[in-house]
Specification:
The protein is mostly helical. Helices cover 71% and strands 0% of the residues. It contains 3 helices and no strands.
């Protein structure tokens, strides 16, 4: 729980609330969590897209990984 809260505070600027009152606090927390979940969803969609492209043309994806070494693409993790 604590690493998730820390990530929200630092990565989504939840440490400073710009909305008023208790309802603003709650809304800020929900919107920050929704943004975090959307980022996870988009990351997984990108991995799935790479996996589909890899299945269709493995050589193209191998070149992509060679020229983008920070890409975390592991096709066995999608099975």
């Amino acid at each position: 729980m604590e690493p998730g809260i820390s990530h929200l505070k630092h990565g989504h600027r939840i440490n400073r609330n710009r909305l008023k009152g208790t309802q603003g606090d709650q809304l800020n927390a929900v919107l920050s969590a929704a943004g975090m979940n959307l980022r996870k969803l988009l990351r997984q969609a990108g991995k799935t897209w790479l996996y589909i492209r890899w299945r269709l043309n493995p050589a193209e994806i191998q070149l992509y990984i060679i020229f983008n070494p920070n890409t975390a693409f592991y096709p066995e993790s999608l099975n």
